[in-house]
Write a structure and sequence with these properties.
2 copies of one chain form a homodimer. Chain A has 6 helices and 9 strands; from the N terminus they run E-E-E-H-E-H-E-E-H-E-H-E-H-E-H. By secondary structure, chain A is α/β, with parallel strands linked by helices. Chain A has a 9-stranded mixed beta sheet. Chain A is globular, with a radius of gyration of 17 Å. At the A-B interface, strand 1, helix 5, strand 9 and helix 6 of A face strand 1, helix 5, strand 9 and helix 6 of B.
């Protein structure tokens, strides 16, 4: 039998230190650990290289110690590790989190909330980012609630919804009404996830979303752009 | 004798709801209450209309109830009120905060930390934003510490330093080393506070600052741009 500290993880990329560009930790220095594989196929996915099976050959099998050795090499000292994907909840990350905590790192994870894992409770911060209508997916609330239950009182759990249009906005409103106890982030969608993004268009979308939120007096929402897209475009590794 | 609830405040402008563009509350819906008058004259000041005595005629004397009536008219329900300036610490804001709390509002205030007020302790959030060398001012640490003492355990107190160059960055590093117990925000300076800002230049400055911070392994700092400048330029009232 292998313990969870020896289990192999499918890693698409490890990079940083850079800053987190989204949500609760926007602007905070972090190293990203991106896993490969996803149960979703969002229409506007900006990380297809970590989603589609044809990229599987690019995903390195690594054990937790190997991942942490790379995080340590990049960061040099304890840092916030952002676990992302793909859907990182598909990987057995409990051993990585436990060993990383021993080295002083903290862990935040983002997932769509379609798959719950017991080790969510060991995270420092969890972002549930269910996908609105524009993604092409329908949210299964039972799974989302299983994620909340798995996390329990362990991490600080926040919601984040990407908003492209009115339908996504309505979806976010309804979701927030269902789960009022958690900080709620709205993020402007990027319609050009490959090639060059258009900062002027992204800022126009941001202004629209701010106006939508303030017109509805939805003052518990936090409205943010993807800061890394504004700063670095769609470049990988930043 | 007038009580602090009747004391007149010098108000430059009240606007919103919009989102906070800076620091700890970035992206959060808020109404701004900007006071008139300042003990500083920062070289790169972006709100001279709330600083220079020649604008004094534009600053309305208002009592706390009048200010709150306008906040309520704009926001319609309880919201985060951002007290800004000028230097809002020069005004007797204790009565406004007490009466606003009764109506369900919360209050965040930003000041350079040159003048302490006993009512700091009643704030929900306090941003001390001492000015680096590029401002032309020298920080008096005794006054800054008086601000920390006045706030005590009342508000969540964070530091924010605007960074234009290497000298500002060094100043921020030293300040953070002196006050390690508080969240520390670095904000990219805007060299064009009047007229049209240059988003590409601002983002180049942001990338430089991120690189500076990560090269120094300063992982406790949060690095942010002025989001409202990216979204709305130097326009007032947003």
């Amino acid at each position: 039998m292998t313990s969870d500290r020896e289990e192999r993880l499918r890693i698409s990329e490890i990079f940083g230190p850079t800053v987190q560009g989204e949500g609760r930790h926007i602007g905070e220095p972090t190293v990203f650990v991106r896993t490969g594989g996803c149960d979703y196929r969002c229409r506007w996915c900006d990380t297809l290289f970590a989603v589609l099976p044809e990229h599987r050959g690019e995903w390195a099998p690594m054990d937790p110690e190997e991942v942490l050795a790379e995080v340590d090499r990049l960061a040099g000292e304890p840092i916030l590790v952002s676990l992302s994907g793909g859907n990182p909840a598909l990987q057995p990350l409990g051993g990585l989190i436990a060993a990383g905590h021993e080295r002083g790192h903290s862990f935040t994870l983002e997932t769509q909330g379609s798959v719950a894992a017991a080790w969510f409770a060991a995270l420092d911060s969890l972002t549930l980012s269910p996908k609105g209508p524009s993604s092409g997916h329908i949210t299964r609330l039972a799974e989302l609630e299983a994620c909340l239950d798995a996390a329990g009182e362990g991490p600080e759990t926040t919601f984040k919804v990407v908003v492209f249009d009115e339908a996504d906005y309505g979806y976010a409103r309804e979701l927030a009404a269902n789960y009022p106890g958690h900080p709620f982030y709205l993020q402007v969608g990027n319609p050009e996830p490959v090639g060059e993004p258009d900062p002027a268009d992204l800022m126009a979308r941001y202004r629209w979303l701010v106006e939508r939120v303030t017109n509805d007096r939805w003052y518990a929402a936090t409205v943010l752009p993807q800061l890394h897209v504004l700063a670095w475009g769609n470049q990988r590794g930043v």
